[in-house]
UniProtKB/TrEMBL annotation:
It comes from Mesorhizobium denitrificans. Belongs to the C/M/P thioester hydrolase family. One of its GO terms (molecular function) is fatty acyl-CoA hydrolase activity. This is Acyl-CoA thioesterase 2. It is an enzyme of class 3 (hydrolase). Residues 30-109 form the Acyl-CoA thioesterase-like N-terminal HotDog domain. Residues 153-281 form the Acyl-CoA thioesterase 2 C-terminal domain. Its EC number is 3.1.2.20. Keywords: Hydrolase, Lipid metabolism. Homotetramer. GO terms for biological process: acyl-CoA metabolic process; fatty acid catabolic process. It catalyses: a fatty acyl-CoA + H2O = a fatty acid + CoA + H(+). The keyword Lipid metabolism applies.
Length: 290
């Protein structure tokens, strides 16, 4: 198993402090704040720890209030809102330095059958036909901004192969659409609850960027202030997550300093695994007055 993937699993193994209270830590990176996907995933772990194992998350809704400090532990407090006949509801508040940085509400359901349909997966090139981010660095050379080069070069628990690469090197106004193949660096555990946690971690990747394409910009631009504001996710179908997953995204709107993006996660065979929606801060920084 990959060392970076092992490290991710360890990061998601929260310490129980007392009943309904858990503690998480952050990865040691050069980032100035905690990756949002980590906070979502850890909060979901905390909620799941208070739910009977046969009930799995079918949806979550979270709000980011403050950027997380990667050098301090995060405390997750779970409120057992309701245990019903079919559904269980939990609320989680993540705190650091005495302040709430993130809140999550998640719903869990016992398995049941019913009507079933889904929209088809877009027709895009297969991941074997595409270059990975390190290959793109070699191919595109100096056309990739330095901040993007550092991001791509770092070893991570998720491999990414973008279908569309123009936005990395161009500042032309593009359609606010993105397709990305993603794959975990190792096979996830055979645990449906943990697979949902790992999907929630993955789901925070590349969404904010999609809302900047129509404006010829990227979240790495020096004049852009970007941060996740809220995040919602719905888990539709089981998947072992042992192969490439297509993450399709589109941004219907950017306005008022906020960008909105929708996402769908498909298995390679075309099964719709989960859906995502996120609004993020996309603010133009003001130039200082002379």
């Amino acid at each position: 198993m990959s060392a970076v993937f092992d490290a991710l699993l360890d990061l998601l193994n929260l310490e129980k402090i007392e009943e309904n209270v858990f503690k998480g830590r952050s990865a040691h990176t050069s980032w100035q704040r905690v990756f949002g996907g980590q906070t979502i995933a850890q909060a979901l772990v905390a909620a799941q720890r208070t739910v009977e194992p046969t009930r799995l998350a079918h949806s979550l809704h979270g709000y980011f209030m403050l950027g997380g400090d990667p050098n301090a532990p995060i405390v997750y407090s779970v409120d057992r809102i309701r245990d019903g006949g079919s559904f269980t509801t939990r609320r989680v508040v993540a705190t650091q330095h005495g302040k709430a940085i993130f809140s999550l509400e998640a719903s869990f359901q016992k398995p049941e059958s019913g009507l079933d349909h889904q929209v088809a997966m877009p027709d895009v090139p297969q991941p074997e036909q595409l270059a990975g981010q390190r290959e793109l660095l070699e191919r595109l050379g100096d056309g990739v901004p330095e901040v993007v080069r550092k991001y791509w070069a770092r070893e991570r628990p998720i491999e990414v192969r973008p279908v569309i690469v123009e936005h990395y090197t161009s500042r032309e106004k593009l359609k606010p659409v993105q397709h990305v193949w993603v794959r975990f660096a190792a096979t996830p555990p055979d645990d449906p609850a943990m697979r949902r946690v790992l999907l929630s971690y993955m789901s925070d990747m590349t969404l904010l960027d999609t809302s900047t394409f129509a404006h010829g910009r990227a979240i790495f631009d020096q004049d852009i202030q970007a941060a996740s504001l809220d995040h919602a996710m719905w888990f539709h179908r089981e998947d072992p997550l042992d192969d490439w997953i297509l993450y399709t995204q589109d941004s219907p709107s950017t306005s008022g300093g906020r960008g909105f993006t929708r996402g769908s996660l498909y298995s390679r065979s075309g099964t719709l695994i989960a859906s995502v929606a996120q609004e993020g801060l996309i603010r133009l920084k003001r130039k200082p007055n002379n």
